[in-house]
Specification:
Structural class: mainly alpha
CATH class of the largest domain: Mainly Alpha
Order of helices and strands: HHHHHHHHHHEEH
Largest sheet: 2 strands, antiparallel
Strand order of the largest sheet: 1-2
CATH architecture of the largest domain: Orthogonal Bundle
Helix content: 40-55%
CATH superfamily of the largest domain: Cytochrome c-like domain
Strand content: under 5%
Number of helices: 11
């Protein structure tokens, strides 16, 4: 039998060998383990980014990044195409940093992907580092979500196989459903074109809430007052007609033009939004707004 000292030496040797083998096994599998961890982290970031995108970005860029005329350009595939154009002109930054910079700091000048595109609002800064509401980790999640589109098929263009209501105020409207109108406002359902209504991106529903445009709180009462205002030059005779005119022909009467005009006589609200909604969509939105008294 081994004496106590010998047993201790053997035990220490076995322990050391076990430790070395364990460390070796961990080292051999570390790359795979880290790859799995990074994949899980990226998947979680994409999931978080999807929720943030729906909340902050979809109203202007579309649910699938397809873009919203008059509100925001295509990101899927528009942002990738635009980056390739910039890269060909010598832009030195990576795609990831290009997307991150646009989200974090916004686009402070009125530039677009294509010369024929115009939007009512500049891209705001979203990162807290630039005065926005999002933490750095939330910005990173949005970047991951947008980058994820690069490996997927581009979003289809908005469906146009429907009759847009357009700007014609004489076009008959069907009876409106205020509940569906509220669902359209809240983006719980989409318009007949397949594009989500962008109302809540610019208008709040709480009294005094000023976003891009004025609050819609009490709109039924306000509409009745505005058609009697001395400076009103529109055609509406009833609150319903006033709301309809404001949506279909937003330049007919601009409330507080010093705040809500993009240029003299031009409302911040794009006149092209009615090209995305059907007569039923419009009727339902009007019916909902008439419940706000």
């Amino acid at each position: 039998m081994f004496d106590l000292a010998t047993r201790r030496i053997i035990g220490a040797t076995v322990l050391m060998l076990t430790t070395v083998v364990t460390i070796g096994m961990v080292w051999l599998t570390e790359e795979q383990r880290m790859a799995r961890f990074e994949a899980m982290h990226k998947a979680k970031a994409i999931e978080n980014g999807a929720l943030l995108y729906e909340q902050y970005c979809s109203a202007c860029h579309g649910a699938e990044g397809e873009g919203v005329p008059g509100r925001g350009p295509s990101l899927n595939p528009g942002v990738f195409q635009h980056y390739e154009q910039l890269k060909a002109q010598g832009y030195p930054n990576s795609l990831r940093n290009f997307i991150k910079l646009n989200i974090a700091a916004g686009r402070p000048v009125r530039s677009t992907y294509h010369s024929n595109e115009t939007y009512a609002e500049l891209m705001p800064a979203w990162s807290q580092d630039f005065g926005g509401p999002l933490r750095p980790d939330q910005v990173e999640s949005l970047v991951e979500f947008v980058l994820n589109w690069q490996t997927a098929k581009p979003a289809p263009a908005p469906a146009l196989a429907f009759e847009a209501v357009g700007s014609d105020l004489t076009k008959p409207l069907p009876p409106g459903d205020p509940q569906r109108g509220q669902a359209l406002w809240n983006q719980e359902v989409k318009q007949a074109s397949g594009v989500a209504a962008s109302c809540k991106a610019c208008h709040g529903l709480r009294p005094g809430e000023v976003m891009v445009g004025p609050s819609m709180a009490g709109m039924a009462t306000l509409a009745a007052e505005r058609i009697r205002a001395p400076d009103y030059k529109g055609q509406a005779k009833t609150p319903e007609e006033y709301i309809r005119e404001s949506i279909q022909q937003p330049n007919a009467y601009i409330v507080e033009p010093e705040k809500y005009a993009a240029a003299p006589g031009v409302s911040l609200m794009p006149a092209t939004l009615v090209n995305q909604m059907s007569a039923q969509d419009l009727a339902d939105l009007i019916a909902f707004l008439l419940t706000l008294k």
